[in-house]
């Protein structure tokens, strides 16, 4: 309306109105300009203050560092693919070819400012080739800025190495000397920290397991060998008729009293926890009731037990099970797997005859161990019935003991040297446990043909003669006596069996005896089905004073053994079998109880497990009731198997990331402490 009025007014009034509007617009523009200038001055002041403070300078430096790191990283994100492996290079590359190779730089040798040599190791770290770099190429300065052991991609021209005959090496050669690469370009893919010192003499700690693997070819080759052993085992099992089927079973199981201590996994549901499986035993038996006739897997297993050189809290088993089968069937399959592994990977042909068998009683009696090394003799014999009582009383406080003996033959030792050897051993820390045996320390005698009764005077004439006939000692041999209680064998070894093994290896170490060679396989059979409970083993928690020698699912061996279940369970022989080689137990298996009623008798009437514990096996019992066929199986300790094949003393040498003797992974610091927040999440609290 105002605008309309202005339009209707006189021309003079319209001119005044326009001037007023122009003044208002000019004032608005002026105020806005002043505000902008004030804002800019404020920004400049704050910027000046920001750049002058220590904090701002540090942030500026951090920004520059981050920018630099990201720029370097960009060069490693986009790099050329390799045109050749080192084997392919040897096989097909010609002089003048342009190639792209990947690998790790070795130490650089600078002949001058303008010429450098460096060896490039391939990604498998099995082969290396020489790289030549000259200042006339832009890549020269880039190469000189890189650390040894850094991963790179290089482009270069193939040349025949000067002085070479031109004849190519075999494709698996470690050092390629017939060819070399003239460097054209290089891409740094990461930097090897200058703080890390890596030389052939460097010994890395368990905290730096990745550097142990990187610097020790034997560790890397063990992992490759292990992978090949898996492949060969799979081929053998899947080539059977009918073939074995690889089935993965759950790792989150439940706690059941099989015999070993378990690792528990708490959940967020209050009071509920999983247990990591000691083995896939129950799942694989359920598979037999599920119509899977032959199962296998490389199973991860977990046991919270004391650790030794051949044990880890988590380990791998080659696990298998067969329905409508006996233990004999399983042993034949495993013997074929072993023959295939030894032939394919070691180039060694094993006997086609069935492996030797030794009963548990014979193994314990003759060698003092249920996993004997039978290659070096030193068999144990019982001698208490021929010894005078005064001698027995001198070596043991036990009444009516069993006394056993073995001899250690010394190749060319004199009696004095033998005496020095055994004295030094018994005085060492290794001999302490034998001296401190509560059943009495070992009786030591050196056979000396120049002494009365050849050094066996304490035996008396008659006993000395009988011992000589039994043991057949030679001049300088060591005769060892050891007493034990007159009770049936139980457990895995006897004191004299442990002493036999320890003395033999000490004799090998000191050069008295040669180290045994070869592989001596045998099956240990006829174990007792039940053994006296051991306070160091959890067992099945029954009240009978007995525990399953292996696990409570093992079947009695014969109909006669079934008859003994209720009358004399300690005398029942199990249909169990352990595979042993060179004193190492590779694995064990058994025929299983496939009848739910018999399984319940074992749980309730023989082991006298409480109903609460029996109910923990309800899933298995229900599966057995569903017409489960007879079945048998075995589990081979895969880590131990590889260690034996490669001649390693410890399974840690064939595992990528093993635990220490305390069950810890020093590299990642596990196990770790639980925070209060994590404990609360799982409804847990720590006791004081």
From TrEMBL:
Annotated keywords: Aminoacyl-tRNA synthetase, ATP-binding, Ligase, Nucleotide-binding, Protein biosynthesis
Alphabetical list of InterPro entries matching this protein: Aa-tRNA-synt_II, aa-tRNA-synth_II, aa-tRNA-synth_II/BPL/LPL, Asp-tRNA-ligase_1, Asp/Asn-tRNA-synth_IIb, GAD-like_sf, NA-bd_OB-fold
One Gene Ontology term, aspect cellular component: mitochondrion
Domain (Aminoacyl-transfer RNA synthetases class-II family profile) ranges: 229-658
UniProt keyword Nucleotide-binding present: yes
A GO term, aspect molecular function: ATP binding
Identification of the protein by name: Aminoacyl-transfer RNA synthetases class-II family profile domain-containing protein
Organism of derivation: Talaromyces rugulosus (Penicillium rugulosum)
PANTHER family linked to this entry: ASPARTATE--TRNA LIGASE, MITOCHONDRIAL, ASPARTYL/LYSYL-TRNA SYNTHETASE
